[in-house]
Amino acid sequence: MQKRQKPGPPTLYKEFPLSPAFPLWVCRGVPEADGGSAHGTLVERHSGLEIGYCHEGEGVVSVAGRVFLFGARSIVVVPPMVPHGTWGPEGLGSTWSYLLADPVRLLGGLGKNADLLDPTRFSGPKCPSVFAGAEHPEIERLLTDILEEDERKNRLHEEAIRGYLLALLVALNRIAGPAPRKADTPARPGAVERIIPALRHIQCEYARKISADGLAKTCGMGKSSFRQTFSQVMGKGPYEYLTEYRIAIACLELREARKTVEAVAWDNGFPTVSCFLRKFRDIMHMTPSQWAKQR
Length: 295
Description:
Blueprint: E1 24-32, E2 49-56, E3 59-63, E4 66-70, E5 74-78, E6 84-87, E7 94-101, H1 103-107, E8 130-132, H2 137-152, H3 157-176, H4 191-205, H5 212-218, H6 223-234, H7 238-256, H8 261-267, H9 273-284, H10 288-294
Antiparallel strand pairs: 1-7, 2-5, 2-7, 3-4, 3-6, 5-8
């Protein structure tokens, strides 16, 4: 078992260079080390649309304040400039392939519907960020076709990738539906950077007692200003984010079936078992025992 490490500085990508001629970048077979206590220190955001494909492993991914479980064959869709990060259990790594693209520049002459090429559509409470390949085989097939075309680089591979990506965006837009774009006040420039210490603290110390005052202090901000900035960036308050993060980690532990429900509750920062049961039902819409049996 890994020893608890002192978390290093968070990694934050503001920009990622994409070729003007073909603004799409692919990276295949990226190993993510087992998480332990330090893996959650990685918080990223990119200037393009990022789509990741998990080949093996499992864990938790946070996208714009929403927390999801991922496993093998999971597809993760992250709109531009949205903060996101992953956490994996100790002793269990994961392997990913990623593509980063600018759909407007890449497909500008192919799609007549402007919304189709707008990657910011893939955000908000009604649009999932994580898709299971078994439940969405069309999305999985199109994504893996893009990865294979980029790897083989056969004749006309760029044209093939454009076609597959357009079809992938169509499939994602159908799931996103006609929901209006988020009308909340946009976060100020630099707001993400200001709350990164709080996100890192939550991801590393979620099992301990955490207060809004303490999180504000880690960011060098006043409590009121911190709450407002956190809500603008993440789309929810710090306590709601912390609770959802704890529940997601609890789901992983319940799936392993190595602990009792009581131990899972206490080991993930819930003051009482009844509090854990109530929050679990609110978020997962079933009891922990039902979820473990279903999974």
